[in-house]
Amino acid sequence: MGLGWRRIEMAVGAGALVVGTAALVIAASGLGTGTPPAAPAVHHDPPTTTTTAAPPAVATDPVPASTLVATAHGDIPGYPTPGAPSDMTVPGSWFGYPSILPVISTEPGWLDVRLAQRPNGSTVWVRQSDATLGSTPYDMVVNLATMRLDVYDGGAPILDFPAGIGAPDDPTPAGNYFVTMQYPPPSPGYGPFVLVTSDHSDSITDWENSGDAIIAIHGPIDSYDDALIGTAGAAISHGCIRLHDADLARLAMIPAGTPIQIVG
Question: To which CATH superfamily is domain 67-135 assigned?
Answer without folding.
Answer: SH3 Domains (2.30.30.40)
